[in-house]
Amino acid sequence: MENHRNSSAQIGLFGAAGAAGQSIAAALGARGVRYRAIGRSRQALEAAFGDDPHADIAIWDPQDPSSVEAAAAGLQTAIYLVGVPYDRFAMHPQLMRNTLAGLNAAGVQRLILIGTVYPYGRPRHNPVTETHPRDPHTFKGRMRLEQEALVLNAHGRDGLATLVLRLPDFYGPGVERSFLHGVFEGAARGGRAQMIGPIDTPHEFIFMPDLGPVVATLANTPAAYGRVLHLAGAGTITPREIATRAYALAGRPPKLMVAGKTTLRVLGLFNPMMRELVEMHYLLTEPVVLDDTALQALIGPISKTSYDEGIRLAFAAAKRALSLHAKARA
């Protein structure tokens, strides 16, 4: 197993290559903090972090606790960002058990899990605070709940302090796993964007670059541990309004193809990933809107990018990507 370049990093990003990991890495680098980018693919890690002098790189196998231990050697804080395919959510609890075993063996002192709203199930009211019952009615929600329980129950054991930070849906420049990504691509191309509806219900999104500074602060805030905290977006907005603003930047009216729950069920007969989306469709009709008063009381006011600015930046990134692709084909 290939190990990290050196042991000077204090903070490790497990599952670093995704959008959340890159946001946190950028914030740590901006503060002059060394970090270890940990993932399964050296190629992906080198592409994302190879030019950052603050980054060490380590390869791991999250299904092997000894691999976790090797990747975590010398770290004080682990930030867990590991995603799994939508049709393999049953992996989440076992991967966390493996990770906790490896972190304990390595003597890591702090763990932050970047979580989701899935464990809440349908919201009983909005906005939702951290005291809202966790009552998931979906399989994915139950798997995320089990994952969270493992993390929270590990707090205070074997010298480990733990924190769960829950986020809403996200978007941002080049964030391909956002379900809004196709909107920015469609606007940049001048073509039709596929969306999952309904698209007129107010929803909450976090601009992914806003995540990094918050996590960088929490990593060194002892009072944050042993609990759950929320990071909310910049208010609510409808997906249609995001599309309208994105297409306006292109000087075009929106061209949208909206798939509702029935369409997803039909597509799911042929596409397993579409089938998995059906279970979580309730979040479009009954969105969870987070209250992050507790987080702001702990670390102070949080800088949040407005939807106008976030949409502008995401659209600009989509335009650049389209231009680079066109040049590469020329």
From TrEMBL:
<dbReference type="InterPro" id="IPR036291">
    <property type="entry name" value="NAD(P)-bd_dom_sf"/>
</dbReference>
<protein>
    <recommendedName>
        <fullName>NAD-dependent epimerase/dehydratase domain-containing protein</fullName>
    </recommendedName>
</protein>
<dbReference type="InterPro" id="IPR001509">
    <property type="entry name" value="Epimerase_deHydtase"/>
</dbReference>
<dbReference type="GO" id="GO:0004029">
    <property type="term" value="F:aldehyde dehydrogenase (NAD+) activity"/>
</dbReference>
<feature type="domain" description="NAD-dependent epimerase/dehydratase">
    <location>
        <begin position="14"/>
        <end position="223"/>
    </location>
</feature>
<dbReference type="Pfam" id="PF01370">
    <property type="entry name" value="Epimerase"/>
</dbReference>
<dbReference type="InterPro" id="IPR051783">
    <property type="entry name" value="NAD(P)-dependent_oxidoreduct"/>
</dbReference>
<dbReference type="GO" id="GO:0005737">
    <property type="term" value="C:cytoplasm"/>
</dbReference>
